[in-house]
User: What shape does this take?
Amino acid sequence: MRSWKVAIVLAVMSLLLAFALAAAQEPVRDFAQLNTRLKPGDTIVVGGTSGVEVRGTLRDIGASSLAINHTGPRVFQADEVREVTVEKPRSKGKWAGLGFLGGAAIGAALTVATMDDADAAFVSRSTAALIIGGLLGGAGAVAGLVVASSTPVRTLVYRAPDPASRSSARFSVAPFVTPRAKGVAVAYSF
Assistant: This one.
């Protein structure tokens, strides 16, 4: 009985940790907090309120403006910025490894599944699976390198608050049912 309780506690803790990690990735809403997510030298994409996106290297960031290098220096004021995304290159080793594993698994599985006893007279199934798996694994590693080199990872770090959605008060009502109680939770914030 005790192991079930430990399992439930661990499951709840891991679920809470997952929610905490997901919440940590939320973009900031205050321009002054942007310096907590970016540092000079980062490659960023600035989406302006006019709909234009400008990609460049971050030079300087202040409480009300940021400067980037984009075919020369360019300064954006806080009220001109709709969102900021940071670009980071993908891990070439990770993607090459994933490609190799995927290709090797497919090659080995196809070899074992399609070989019959007549083919096994020339070479054993395990040897053929290693050879074909290695060849397809190499092709998968090259494909992984191509993917890693061509597409960077983009992470949204800032989104300007929408002026239309600003409300001074919020009201919510939610029912709840537990083994010992039933009721309605009411929340009001302003």
